[in-house]
Amino acid sequence: MRMHVLSGGRFEMSRHIFLPDAGRDARIEIPVSCFLIRHPQGNVLFDTGCHPDVARDPEARWGELSRFMVPLHGPDEHVLNGLAGLGLGPDDIDVVINSHLHCDHCGCNEFFARATFIAHQAELEAAAVSTSDRNGYFRKDWDHPAYDALTGQRDLFDDDRVVLIPLPGHTPGSTGALIGLDRDGEFLLASDAISVRESFDRDIAPKNTWQAEPLLASYAEARKIESYLCKRTKKLYR
Questions:
Q1: Is 232 helix (H, G, I), strand (E, B) or coil?
Q2: Is pTM beyond 0.90 here?
Q3: Cα–Cα–Cα angle for 192, 197, 199, nearest 5°?
Q4: For residues 174 and 191, is the Cβ–Cβ distance under 8 A?
């Protein structure tokens, strides 16, 4: 089994959101990472990143949010082109896992018409609230497929190679994935459950956190996994 890291875009935000002692003018660049997992039973895509239109006209796609999350990537930097570079098209993806349903993590969902989609039930409920656009959920991004809803941990193929792990806090249904590769070992894809390593190391809940208490509990769970992986000389990836 192999894994490829694909760009889903990049944007800039205030560093103060993640680290309260940062200067008000300090900025931080945030990469949007998508992961293609090539499992013997099918191709799995973990997150779909930003929609291509975000680079062309961010305000039209994201509205006022584009003032706080300022896109830095060009119009050709999106997951579809990343897949094309590997010789794959949208119809080659069997499963899409959305770590959560914020617009920078499910923006290309609409292109994967053949895939089965997976997201946590709590995330689907949060996104469906009528005012959820205020919190970064845009129906045009996420509301395309029928979802297979998670309610807890799930071993996707029953072989310990792709294990979905709830990591709530950033959003109600944030989900990570523990990936076991043939040569390189195990990786935790934490998504925005750990947006910035320094916040994680210092137990800081960023200002864009849904609820601090579950996020800190997710930090603790991630540390347990990190300790386990380090003992096996593996790695923790955001």
A1: coil
A2: yes
A3: 85
A4: yes
Model confidence over 50-80: pLDDT tens digits? 999 999 999 999 999 999 999 999 999 999 9
- For the chain, what is the mean pLDDT? 95
> Which tokens hold the place of 227?
């300790």
3-state secondary structure of 219: helix
Q: 52: Cβ–Cβ under 8 A, 6 or more apart, which residues? A: 75, 78, 80, 108
DSSP-based helix, strand, coil % in the chain, nearest 5 = 30, 30, 40
Distance (Å, rounded) from C-alpha 81 to C-alpha 184?
A: 25
Q: Which residue has the tokens 């941990």?
A: 153
The lowest-confidence range among 84-98, 194-208, 220-234 is: 220-234
Determine contact, residues 234/187, Cβ cutoff 8 Å. Answer: yes
Which residues, 6 or more positions from 183, have their beta carbon under 8 angstroms from its beta carbon?
Answer: none
The span from the CA of 29 to the CA of 192, in Å, is 14
